[in-house]
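Progress against Task 2.4 (sequence-to-structure conversion) is shown through the following example record, which the project officer requested during the mid-term review.
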Amino acid sequence: MATVRNVGVIAQLRSEASSHVIRFRHGRMRQSGRGLVFWFRPETASISEVPVDDREMTLFVRGRSRDFQAVVVQGTIGWHVVDPELLASRVDFSIDLRSGRLQGQPIERIEGRLGGIASQAALNYLGTSPIGGLLDAGLEPLRAVLERALDTAPALAEIGIAAVSVRLTNLAPTSELERALQTPTFEALQQKADEATFARRALAVEKERAIAENELATKTELARRETVLITQEAENARDRAAGVAEARGLEAAAEAERIRLVEGARVEAEQHRAAVYRDMPPAVLLGLAARELAGKLETIEHVNITPDLLAALVGEVRGAIPARIAPR
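Structure tokens generated for the chain above:
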């Protein structure tokens, strides 16, 4: 926006570099250019200020597809002024010489013309295809149609403006139709998710079955090894018992042989002793018996000698004396 400073009957205008200022005096153009600074007399001057920077406008189009479904198009259109003097001659860009503001709304008029051309082209495009085809094609074909329509529109060239860009952000049906169109895709995705879930469950069951089979095989192998171990332990126990029995048998046989030998020796010794005693006189035997008895007795308190015993002893002594003193 230009800045106007009034000093008495004259005024100074200072414009920005992004504005093209045109000064008329008595209906004739006196100055034209960007970023001008000049003095003028308000009562004899008329000034227009045309913005020459790039601008953007919002595009919103509601149309119908070939199968009579509502479709909404949203985006932006970039435009700029190509010929400021031509535009100022076709659209009123005059400013208030006291405040420097535009007296009318020329930007809205230009954007209205741009929006009308773009909306007509969009409606024609939307009406050529069913809603499914439009959504499948996406935004790019419609953007190309709008660019071509704006580039070739004579209504823009004749006022000195040009579209520089077209950006579309949305091409969508109504919310109810959008949900209906999303249902098959959603169901297909849900079906794939269910299949993935079923496959995961089947895989889990298969893994559990493999684990159970592995555990069963392990238990079977452990049972088999335990059976082998029990059998081996039984054989070892039988071998140990047989070894112990054999060792005891050998010990018993050796003990029996030892006893037999000892008893045989004892019997033989007794036989020799009996043979010795058999040849001895009775008196000697009695003496030996008395000596044996005396050796086993600790004390003798009483000795009873009967007449019969004394007579027998005396007789024996008498009979033995002559035999001992007899010449040999």
